[in-house]
Amino acid sequence: MTAIHGADSGKTRYYLDELQVGQRFTTGTHALDAGQIKAFAAAFDPQPFHLDEAAAKDTLFGDLAASGWHTAAISMRLMVDSGPPFVGGIIGGGGEIVWPKPTRAGDVLRVEIEVLAITPSKSRPDRGMVTVRNDTRNQNGDILQTFTAKLVVPKRPAAG
Amino acid sequence: MTAIHGADSGKTRYYLDELQVGQRFTTGTHALDAGQIKAFAAAFDPQPFHLDEAAAKDTLFGDLAASGWHTAAISMRLMVDSGPPFVGGIIGGGGEIVWPKPTRAGDVLRVEIEVLAITPSKSRPDRGMVTVRNDTRNQNGDILQTFTAKLVVPKRPAAG
Q1: Which residue, A142, B15, B40, B48, has most beta carbons within 10 Å?
Q2: What pLDDT does B159 receive?
Q3: Are the Cβ atoms of B46 and A94 closer than 8 angstroms?
Q4: Residue A64: inside a domain, yes or no?
Q5: Which residues does chain B have with pLDDT short of 70?
Q6: In chain A, what is the straight-line distance between the N-terminal and C-terminal CA atoms, in Å?
């Protein structure tokens, strides 16, 4: 597998042509604490189980839990900082997201990425769709989120 | 359709039993500006097209665009503040998310919710799953995000 250097950075970046089904990537990690969970929740998901340990006790979560959107946002940050370096960035049209377990204070998150499918565009010869499964795991290997995403990745420009 | 008042607030809240397929809700609105877009991106999705108008020009977005996760987070906030008042809160196990159009500075967002399916749990008689389609629209009616979510909603406790 070959890879090129993008014009805008020294980072090795991949065109659609250089990806293959089954290819895997792993990001760096992010350590989550209660302060981060409460700050995100206060801004975007102010429900008791995301804001306060005591209030969470009597809920389905049983203890403070991060908003699923916080897990998603941290996962995106990990993807951007240390995930697969696609030419053009990580641009998603959507996908299927599931949160099988709550994300807790003290969790150290990482994202494991696998390329599931590569589909060159019929209407746009300069790009294609890459389907990737992104598993967000904690330090125990528990899967906290799976986002199966469809990403837009450019094709390598024809030589000449 | 009946509804009850939750013990924890004066707000009318719905048990699973009081929901019906086809039922609709609409949230209040949130006005988005470039500062919010850039602040969210700096924290969670620091790619050029989410951070800087000039840098966005040469990308697939053509101008500053909000991170999809920012649209999702704002939509969640609107749901919590003024969406369907389910007993126990808005607790999702996941769903399918799509972003058909970029969210832009100046957009005023609202979420339109429709109940698609109601499925009492076979294993847990105290709850059920509600499938809802949440369309996040801007002031022109454009759909910026559709999140088809599976939510957990408690059943009304048996009398006695």
Answers
A1: B40
A2: 72
A3: no
A4: yes
A5: 1-11, 160
A6: 22
Burial label, B3 (beta-carbon count in 10 A; 0-12, 13-18, 19+): middle
In this prediction the pTM is 0.92
CATH of the domain at B140: 3.10.129.10
Residue indicated by tokens 């500006």: B33
Bridge partners (DSSP) of residue B129 are: B119, B152
Q: Which residue has the higher pLDDT, A50 or B4?
A: A50
How far is the first Cα of chain B from the last one, in angstroms, to the nearest whole number? 22
Which is it for strands B4-5 and B12-13: parallel, antiparallel or unpaired? antiparallel
8 Å CB contact of B44 and A68: no
Q: What is the pLDDT of residues B56-73, one digit of tens each?
A: 998 989 999 999 999 999
Dihedrals phi, psi of B5, to nearest 5 degrees: -95, 125
What average pLDDT does this structure show over A128-157?
97
Within-domain flag for A108? yes
Distance from CA of B81 to the nearest CA of A (A): 8
With respect to residue B160, please indicate whether it lies within any of the assigned structural domains: no
CB–CB contact A67 B76 (8 Å): yes
Question: How many domains is chain A partitioned into structurally?
Answer: 1
Which of B59, B74, B97 minimises the CB distance to A97?
B97
Range of the domain at A76: 10-154
Residues in A touching B47 (Cβ below 8 Å): 80, 89-90
Mean pLDDT of A47-68: 96
Closest CB to B68 among A74, A80, A92: A92
> How would residue A27 be classed by pLDDT, with cut points 50, 70 and 90?
very high
**A44, closest residue in chain B (CA to CA):** B77
Residue A84 lies in a domain: yes
Out of B81, B88, B98, name the one closest to residue A94 (CB): B98
